[in-house]
Description:
Layout: H1 3-13, H2 19-38, H3 43-48, H4 53-63, H5 66-74, H6 82-144, H7 147-192
Helix pairs in contact: 1-2, 1-4, 6-7
Amino acid sequence: MNKQEFLLALRGALSALPEADIRASLDYYAEIIDDRMEEGIPETEAVASLGAVVAAAEQILLDMPLPKLVKARVKPKRKLRAWEVVLIAVGSPVWFPILLALAVVVLAVYIVLWAVAVSLYAADISIGAGFVAGVAGTVLLFVMGHPASALALLSAGIVCGGLAIFGFFGCNAAAKGIWRLGKLMWRGIKSCFIRKEEE
């Protein structure tokens, strides 16, 4: 497949998108092919290195913002007939609540994921506060003349400080995992609007 054939096939795969988005994607891939050809790679190999047209089109669609993707994919190819409009209107008491409930569930899951991350950080901060309280209590107990109690409280404060430091790294790892899970979730939602083209 040469450059023109690849770009023509890509245009066909992206035909539901607005012309400006199609043009931007075609320019991007044309520039990649031209750059590889300038490096001395033959045209067919430069095109082959990009992979299948369907995979490139799917990646473009996955990278689009969800509202734009929904607008491009849900827009009818032709004007709806009167009976289709009536059927949509009559069926709306069934499909609209289901669609709304699904959207609310997805949003709730996303919020719960981030609530877990916030809770982990809050727990870590409270453990860190134990370190601060331990050090402050140690000074107070030394002043009051209770060195054994002060030493025990200092030890507990140091343990809390160490746990807070280790907990911070764990919280960061959990937050990164939740971020990746959230991205995966949104990509899954986007993929529902991407029609799988047959190769």
